[in-house]
Amino acid sequence: MGRDYEKWTSQDGRVTLYRGDCNEILPTLAENSIDAIITDPPYAEVSRDYGRLTEPEWFALINPVMEESRRVLTPTGSGVYILQPNSEKIGRLRMWLFKFIVKWGEEWGMVQDVWWWNYVALPVSGACSYGLCRPSMKICAWFGAADCFRNQKKVLLRESKRNMGQRVNARSGIVKNPSGLDIDKKKIATATLKNGGVTPFNLLPFSNGGGTDKSGAYGHGAGTPLALADWWTRYISPPGGTILDPFLGAGTMGLAALAHGRRFIGIERDANYFEISKKRIADVLAQPDMFAWKEEK
After folding, report:
1. Which ranges constitute the DSSP H helices of 7-116?
2. 129 and 164 share one domain
3. Does residue 81 share a domain with residue 227?
């Protein structure tokens, strides 16, 4: 590893943060030591205060990260990489994200396509002036083994009143559709009781709007919503496990990890964001009631 790095460890040892290049630091982490990777990397061809990566530069950064991700994860661990496509010009989408998904879906295995919908996204010029849809979704590219750890019971949805009414009134039954797909509505309605909730959709509606707990309040213009980080933490990391974020940013993934009693390792190259992350995480550790959490058994 190069000499230009810094390491910070919380007093209780649950959090370790590194300031430096993730492709220098990741090889120093032990094999099979991470239970889940949840991260929101930089995107290709997007200008930020930390610079702009061309598509070749982006792949030179991300491909070694993916190789190291596979090495440091446990056999049942998986990684989620939150990314958004962008355009070369209005009406012509760049292909870097789709090339990334194909490459690592084939080499590693893609568990499922899951999408985050920022339902408060504002219309941009492509929508207002050129008749396109407003961009409001990012893929949570989920890679791992087909049998990787996941605890669906931690992310079940609440039963709708309509579903409850159908179940209580016993009006559900087998419905035959013209497509040939027969649906047993009674079985679907009663599954809620068996599971303890409604199975989640692969579209996650979370706002990245303002608030004192948002990354934007700390000067990060493209932060991940805490609700999204929290959802993935509950879903793919086991109780007491270790979560890694190799693109730490303002530290939101660390907050979600702490909120559920996980250990956390974060890596951030930018000195300013590194200091922001340290402060946010230190504040939570100093005020354990900042989030209403209980360690899961």
Report:
1. 22-25, 55-72, 96-107
2. no
3. yes
Please give the residue that has the higher pLDDT: either 210 or 72.
72
One domain for residues 143 and 222:
yes
What is the chain's length?
A: 297
Host H or E run for residue 87: strand 87-89
Domain membership of residue 45 as a residue range: 6-151+200-290
CB distance 138 to 113 below 8 Å = no
41 and 91 part of one domain: yes
pLDDT in tens, 151-165: 999 999 987 666 666
C-alpha distance from residue 23 to each of 67, 114, 142, 195, 239 (Å): 10, 26, 20, 41, 28
Does 214 map to a domain?
A: yes
Mark whether 66 and 193 lie in a shared domain: no
Sequence letter at residue 100: F
Nearest Cα to 100, choosing from 143, 146, 50, 133?
143
**Per residue in 235-274, pLDDT tens?**
999 999 999 999 999 999 999 999 999 999 999 999 999 9
Structure tokens at 70: 């596979």
Same domain, yes or no: 94 and 140: yes
**Torsion angle, CA of 85/145/104/252, rounded to 10 degrees?**
40
Q: What is the pTM of this model?
A: 0.87
Amino acid, res. 233: T
Q: Could you tell me if 139 and 265 lie in one domain? A: yes
Angle between helices 96-107 and 55-72 (to 10 degrees): 30
Beta-bridge partners for 115: 139, 203
Per the domain annotation, does 297 fall within a domain?
Answer: no
- The burial of 64, by beta-carbon neighbours within 10 Å (0-12 exposed, 13-18 middle, 19 or more buried), is given as middle
Sign of CA dihedral 243, 72, 266, 227: negative
Percent of residues, the chain, with pLDDT higher than 70:
80
